[in-house]
Each structure stands twice: as structure tokens, then as C-alpha cells.
């Protein structure tokens, strides 16, 4: 094993061996659908090639058919509890780490039905990538791009709403920041609204849209924390007050966002980043970390990032999906927003952690770690360079469920385990915030009795995406 110092979890990782767990549901219901959808995406391209051939069509068609048969084989293997096999050399990053770990398991533990869920799910996406990476004509093909684009296009109502709210906040920055240090200040209320929009963006819950007009925020202030609490009632652990207290100690700092999904969630990440940079004195730079290969269907790739911003400048982009066409005023708001984001990218206030034109599967060292199978507890051991880079940041925000699973090792911790304890060797190394809507079994940091109550009231609370945990951990400076 190349990394003998990996964190020893005190509890088992989730695995499909437990038939009642979500890992099992993933194996028997979710993954087959993911694979079938890719087969259908590749078949559609093949069909197109057939109908409109060009010089490369024949070779690409042949490769496409091979990819379809490899994916079908993987699906068959899953259904028949076959053993996971080493990933073949495809010239892409992060192959050895999967194969090295695979070798450490006894035969009975490395089958689709017995392997720990975190490894198996990451392996599935890395293995899928290898089918495309090994070709000539499909190397840059993202089988999930159409799905990501569809969800983005269908979110135009929320996108326009947030764009207008954000533009308004930028115009009213002076009002917003009056007495910002006072408890319950307009800036604090606006921050809490913004960050919750970003949190629920992970569930693509469009029902919690914010209004950031100074006038509206004053109304919110009038009803005080009750309104905030109402909005936050499904957040089972809520460290946002601690985050706000901490942020107030930061001046012209740097925030990093370990991204999750493209489309609407990425848009809410950009909105939060815009708010922090444009409306607060705390943050000057936001660094966005995308994935290096198509990952968990909808995760952000470098291309998705640039494309999301450019699309806002294309007046016809939402036209095919909007039930009512966007008005000139809507389009002007989107254009003002995207132009500001482009200026921020040019000036370095917004940064992508890897070059925007990074090819799939070829990320620089800083872009590699997020598509390995490692839990983030092992970040200090397996990716010290990435950790050093994150230590330059004042706050590292981890978005979404998979990032949360990796932070706590996807293990069956008792639900009252302190978040810091579950972070293992990562605790205290960086200041971090996890914004997660619950879509998997693992969860920590809850008060005594919460899990038991929810087991009765809403038995699917761990996986439905309707509940969330917001977990903060501060760096220890020695
Ligand atoms: O996009 P997110 O929030 O990381 O969620 C991805 C989620 O998909 C699932 O893996 C299911 O396959 C989750 O349970 C997982 O963690």
C-alpha cells in the first residue's frame, strides 16, 4: 500500500452489503440507470454519425460501439456481483491509486455487492472514463453534458430572480454594509440568505429564493431571527452563525469552493462568490475547484464553468425552455451579472484552480485529488500539495453530498459524533465549511435524539435531499 498512514476509521464504511442502506439502492437501482443513460447518449451520437457521415465517422462509430459494449458489460457485472478489476492504462490521471487500493482487498470484499460504497462509486466513474479515454475520437466527450445543460436551461426563472437580487445588492452595497458588525445587521441577514440559497442549490430546491433588496432585508430584520429560523428548519445542524462570526474577522481574504454540480448549483455558487466579493469587506478572491473527469453525472468540469457564464450572455440560451420568454429586462440583468463575473475572472477576483482549457483526465496536480477515491481525512497523507494550497485560503467551502461523504469517510458514525472528530487528520488543518443536503446515510454532528425523532417522522431523512447539515470547522493555528 503506497500510503501506509491512511486514517483508520473506527466504524465501517457504508456498503451494499447492508440491504437497507442507500448503497444497496444505488447498486441495484441508481447505477444501472446512470449506465443506461450513457449508453443511450453514445447511441444517439452514433446514430447522428450514421445519418450525417464525415471523414472520421466510421472510426468513431466503431469506437462508440465498443464503448457501449464495455458499459453494458459493466452493468452486467454489477448485476452479477462480479469482482472489480484493475483499470487499464488509458493515459489519464488517477489510475494507479484505484488499482493500488483494489489490490489491498481480499477477494470477497472487492465485488460490486461487497466493496465499500465510496470506493465502488468513485471507481465506477473512473472506469467509465477509461472507456472514453482509451479512444481516439471520444477522449473529450462528456456523456453527461446534455443532462447538465438541460437542467441549467430549465432553471431560468430562478436564475433571473437571483441575478436581479444580486445586481440589486451590488447597487446597494453601501446601505447593506452599514454597521455590518452589529448583531442582526443587514449584511448578516443578506449573507445568511445567500448562503442558504447556495446550500439548497445543491438540492436544486428553487423554493428558497432570496430577495436582496435593502428594503426587503430591512423587513426581514424586523421579523428578526424567526424568519431565518423558519427558512432554516430543515437544517439539522446549522453552524452558519459561527461562520458569520468567523468571516467578520477576515479582511480581503480568499475563499475556495470545492464545487459539486454544474448548472443551477454552480450558478448559486457563483452568486455566493459574487456576494462575498462585491458586497462584503471580507473576501477579495474566490477560487473554484472543478473535477478532472465526468463525475457523479453532473459535477462541474472546467468546460462547464466557462460555459455556464458564457451562456448567460447568449440571449437565445434559455429560449427553448422558458415557459414565458425572458424579457429585455431579464436579459439585461443576466448580461450585467455575467459581464461582472467575466471581469472578476479577468482581474483574478474569481479563479478556476486549473486552466479553463484543461483536457479531460489531464488536470494539473491541483486538479487531481477530487476524482480519486480517497476520503478527505486522507488529504494530508495523499495530497500534501493540495492541502498546502488550501491552507492559503481563509475558508474552504465543500459543496454537496459526495464531498460531505468524503469529509467523514462515508462511515456509519453515531449521528452525535462531533464533526471535528469525524474529520480525522484533516481537523484543524484548514478552516472549512460543508454545505450539504442529505443524500446518503452517513451523518454526524447532530444533537442527541434528532436522528431517532426523524427516523419516526420522516424515515427517508438521510437520503431525500430535503434535510441538510451545515458544518464548520476552524483551523488551529499553532
Ligand atoms: O451531487 P451530490 O450532492 O454530491 O450528490 C451525489 C450523490 O449521488 C449519490 O452518490 C447517489 O449515487 C449520493 O448519494 C451522492 O453522494
Automatic annotation (TrEMBL):
<keyword id="KW-0479">Metal-binding</keyword>
<comment type="similarity">
    <text>Belongs to the damage-control phosphatase family. Sugar phosphate phosphatase III subfamily.</text>
</comment>
<dbReference type="InterPro" id="IPR036075">
    <property type="entry name" value="ARMT-1-like_metal-bd_sf"/>
</dbReference>
<dbReference type="InterPro" id="IPR039763">
    <property type="entry name" value="ARMT1"/>
</dbReference>
<keyword id="KW-0464">Manganese</keyword>
<dbReference type="InterPro" id="IPR002791">
    <property type="entry name" value="ARMT1-like_metal-bd"/>
</dbReference>
<dbReference type="GO" id="GO:0006974">
    <property type="term" value="P:DNA damage response"/>
</dbReference>
<comment type="function">
    <text>Metal-dependent phosphatase that shows phosphatase activity against several substrates, including fructose-1-phosphate and fructose-6-phosphate. Its preference for fructose-1-phosphate, a strong glycating agent that causes DNA damage rather than a canonical yeast metabolite, suggests a damage-control function in hexose phosphate metabolism.</text>
</comment>
<dbReference type="GO" id="GO:0046872">
    <property type="term" value="F:metal ion binding"/>
</dbReference>
<dbReference type="GO" id="GO:0005634">
    <property type="term" value="C:nucleus"/>
</dbReference>
<feature type="domain" description="Damage-control phosphatase ARMT1-like metal-binding">
    <location>
        <begin position="28"/>
        <end position="453"/>
    </location>
</feature>
<keyword id="KW-0378">Hydrolase</keyword>
<protein>
    <recommendedName>
        <fullName>Sugar phosphate phosphatase</fullName>
        <ecNumber>3.1.3.-</ecNumber>
    </recommendedName>
</protein>
<dbReference type="GO" id="GO:0016791">
    <property type="term" value="F:phosphatase activity"/>
</dbReference>
<dbReference type="Pfam" id="PF01937">
    <property type="entry name" value="ARMT1-like_dom"/>
</dbReference>
Amino acid at each position: 500500500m503506497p500510503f501506509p498512514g491512511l486514517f483508520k476509521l473506527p466504524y465501517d464504511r457504508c456498503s451494499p452489503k447492508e440491504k437497507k442502506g442507500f448503497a444497496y439502492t444505488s447498486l441495484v437501482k441508481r447505477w444501472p440507470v446512470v449506465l443506461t443513460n450513457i449508453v443511450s447518449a453514445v447511441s444517439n451520437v452514433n446514430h447522428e454519425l450514421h445519418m450525417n457521415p464525415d471523414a472520421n465517422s466510421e472510426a468513431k462509430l466503431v469506437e462508440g460501439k465498443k464503448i457501449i459494449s464495455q458499459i453494458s458489460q459493466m452493468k452486467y457485472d454489477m448485476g452479477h456481483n462480479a469482482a472489480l478489476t484493475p483499470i487499464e492504462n488509458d493515459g489519464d490521471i488517477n489510475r494507479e491509486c484505484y488499482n493500488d487500493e483494489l489490490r489491498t482487498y481480499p477477494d470477497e470484499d472487492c465485488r460490486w455487492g461487497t466493496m465499500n460504497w465510496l470506493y465502488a462509486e468513485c471507481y465506477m466513474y473512473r472506469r467509465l472514463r477509461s472507456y472514453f479515454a482509451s479512444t481516439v475520437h471520444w477522449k473529450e466527450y462528456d456523456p453527461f453534458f446534455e443532462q447538465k445543460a438541460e437542467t441549467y436551461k430549465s432553471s431560468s426563472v430562478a436564475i433571473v430572480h437571483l441575478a436581479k437580487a444580486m445586481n440589486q445588492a451590488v447597487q446597494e452595497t453601501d446601505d447593506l454594509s452599514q454597521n455590518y458588525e452589529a448583531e442582526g445587521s443587514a449584511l448578516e441577514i443578506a449573507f445568511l440568505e445567500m448562503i442558504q440559497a447556495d446550500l439548497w442549490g445543491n438540492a436544486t430546491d428553487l423554493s428558497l429564493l432570496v430577495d436582496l433588496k435593502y428594503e426587503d432585508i430591512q423587513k426581514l430584520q424586523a421579523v428578526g431571527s424567526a424568519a431565518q429560523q423558519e427558512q432554516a428548519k430543515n437544517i439539522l445542524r446549522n453552524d452558519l452563525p459561527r461562520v458569520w462570526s468567523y468571516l467578520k474577522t477576515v479582511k480581503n481574504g480568499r475563499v475556495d469552493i470545492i464545487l459539486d454540480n454544474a448548472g443551477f448549483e454552480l450558478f448559486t455558487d457563483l452568486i455566493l462568490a459574487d456576494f462575498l466579493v462585491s458586497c462584503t469587506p471580507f473576501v477579495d478572491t474566490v477560487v473554484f475547484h472543478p473535477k478532472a473527469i465526468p463525475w457523479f453525472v453532473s459535477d462541474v468540469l472546467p468546460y462547464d464553468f466557462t460555459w455556464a457564464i458564457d451562456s448567460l450572455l447568449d440571449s437565445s440560451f434559455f429560449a427553448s425552455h422558458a415557459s414565458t420568454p425572458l424579457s429585455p429586462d431579464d436579459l439585461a440583468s443576466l448580461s450585467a451579472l455575467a459581464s461582472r463575473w467575466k471581469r472578476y475572472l479577468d482581474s483574478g477576483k474569481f479563479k478556476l484552480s486549473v486552466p479553463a482549457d484543461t483536457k479531460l483526465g489531464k488536470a494539473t496536480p491541483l486538479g487531481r485529488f477530487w476524482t480519486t477515491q480517497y476520503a478527505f481525512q486522507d488529504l494530508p497523507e495523499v495530497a500534501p500539495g493540495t492541502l498546502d494550497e488550501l491552507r492559503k485560503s481563509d475558508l474552504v467551502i465543500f459543496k454537496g453530498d459526495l464531498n460531505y461523504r468524503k469529509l467523514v469517510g462515508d462511515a456509519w458514525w453515531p449521528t452525535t459524533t462531533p464533526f471535528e472528530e469525524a474529520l480525522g487528520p484533516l481537523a484543524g488543518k484548514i478552516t472549512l465549511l460543508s454545505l450539504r443536503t442529505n443524500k446518503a446515510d452517513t451523518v454526524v454532528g447532530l444533537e442527541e435524539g434528532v436522528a431517532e425523532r426523524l427516523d419516526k417522522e420522516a424515515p427517508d431523512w438521510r437520503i431525500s435531499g430535503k434535510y441538510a447539515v451545515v458544518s464548520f470547522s476552524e483551523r488551529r493555528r499553532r
